[in-house]
Specification:
By secondary structure, this protein is an alpha+beta fold. It folds into three domains: about 35 residues, no CATH class; about 220 residues, Orthogonal Bundle (Hypothetical protein af1432), CATH 1.10.3210.10; about 120 residues, no CATH class. It contains 14 helices and ten strands. The strands form three sheets. Strands 8-7-6-5-9-10 form a six-stranded antiparallel beta sheet, with no helix packed on it. Strands 1-2 form a two-stranded antiparallel ribbon. It starts with 6 loop residues before the first strand and ends in a 21-residue tail after the last strand.
Length: about 400
């Protein structure tokens, strides 16, 4: 195994443990796992095209964002009344936003921070990243929704990214035995977890722009009026009608959908990471009414069910790698064939490219040995149904 990308130190992602092009000895793998490094990028002769898609400048920006999250969150864990470094948050997310504005990045899932060791911190950085990408897709809609701002102010997404970096900061006040419990939470424990938006809002209000603080408070509010926390009249203690629809600030509506997606596609103490195709299916079918339809439509066009580089098996038994995303037919990407149905390696995969949108006799059936056919129908043509369940 020869590294295609350097391996960062989990506690300080601006430093590297191992550089690219180094062979990874098998006796080092258990040590990497102990450090929280669960995956690395290695060279594969059939997937060399991926190296051209990896943007190291973007990765540098993300590592800076993660470092700012980690430094502040660790300070909270050590001291009940620390000063969060909001200036550093704003600087790091501003740098990432500026980089994204000057670049074209369609390969969203090549750049998640799944290999880092702390779910809460890497999740916060990922949500900030995905929110910026989604916000750029719905820029005109944001301007229409933020009527109190000038168009120039409305489309400055730095506040969106800042709020998403901080959206779960209130979990720092949740007992770790509840936050990291591997079993199902009791009703009492879930009630404690549901206090984290309030705790987080108390930590940031008056210290960050109001729109960022609103994300922290409202990122679990649902478009249909569900979600939490409940609204309470501060004078009477009366429980008020929950926010719904466009009463929920547009930045909070963006945070809701990317928060759910990233949490479900990332490994946690009580569950493994789900494949994107499964999560997108569950979001379309189980989360009916959760999301602003305009934002959801843009999100589903942005995030591919089968990320570029994913190795899949087609219905005729061919093994292939995904090389392009078709936003109009998301479950039918372009693929390059790696092995024929008999299992023989194809010498030059680039000469055996198939656009599944044009070959309706073929489809993707398995990913990593998992049958994905139950997840496909909901993602063709934007079909959405209700199943009365919730994706958490």
């Amino acid at each position: 195994m020869v590294l295609a990308r350097p391996v960062a130190v989990p506690s300080d992602p601006r430093r590297f443990l191992l550089q690219r092009d180094r062979e990874v000895p098998m006796d080092l793998v258990p040590r990497l796992r102990e450090m929280g490094i669960v995956e690395v990028w290695i060279r594969h002769r059939d997937l060399e095209f991926l190296e051209e898609l990896i943007d190291e400048g973007l990765s540098d920006c993300q590592r800076e964002v993660y470092a700012s999250v980690r430094g502040s969150f660790e300070a909270v864990m050590k001291d009940a009344t620390p000063q969060l470094d909001f200036g550093r948050f704003q600087s790091s997310i501003g740098g990432l936003f500026d980089y994204l504005k000057g670049s074209v990045h369609g390969n969203v899932l090549l750049h998640k921070l799944d290999a880092f060791d702390n779910f809460l911190m890497s999740h916060s950085a990922n949500v900030g990243y995905l929110a910026l990408l989604l916000g750029m897709q719905v820029e005109r809609y944001i301007i229409e929704e933020r009527t109190s701002k000038s168009p120039r102010e409305a489309k400055d997404l730095t506040v969106l990214g800042l709020g998403c970096l901080l959206h779960d900061v209130g979990k720092m006040r949740i007992p770790t035995e509840i936050l990291n419990k591997p079993e199902r939470l009791t009703d009492e424990e879930m009630a404690i977890i549901k206090q984290h938006p309030i705790y987080g809002f108390e930590m940031v209000k008056g210290r960050v722009p109001a729109a960022a603080a609103e994300i922290v408070l409202n990122h679990h509010q649902r478009y249909n009026g569900g979600g939490y926390p409940p609204r309470i009249n501060p004078d009477t203690g009366e429980v008020l009608q929950p926010l719904s629809g466009k009463q929920i600030p547009v930045f909070s509506r963006i945070a809701t959908i990317v928060d759910i997606y990233d949490a479900a596609t990332t490994a946690r103490c009580y569950s493994g990471a789900k494949q994107p195709v499964q999560v997108l299916h569950e979001m379309r079918t189980w989360c009916d009414g959760f999301f602003d339809p305009v934002i959801a439509d843009a999100f589903y066009k942005m995030v591919p069910p089968f990320p570029i580089g994913q190795v899949v098996v087609l219905s005729d038994g061919t093994e292939a790698a995904v090389v392009d995303f078709n936003s109009n037919r998301p479950t039918r990407p372009k693929v390059q064939c790696l092995r024929d149905p008999e299992g023989y390696r194809i010498d030059d995969p680039s000469l055996h490219e198939i656009d599944l949108a044009l070959h309706l006799d073929l489809s993707i059936v398995t990913v990593n040995g998992v049958d994905v056919t139950p997840f496909l129908s909901s993602q063709e043509g934007g079909v959405t149904t209700s199943a009365g369940a919730a994706l958490v």
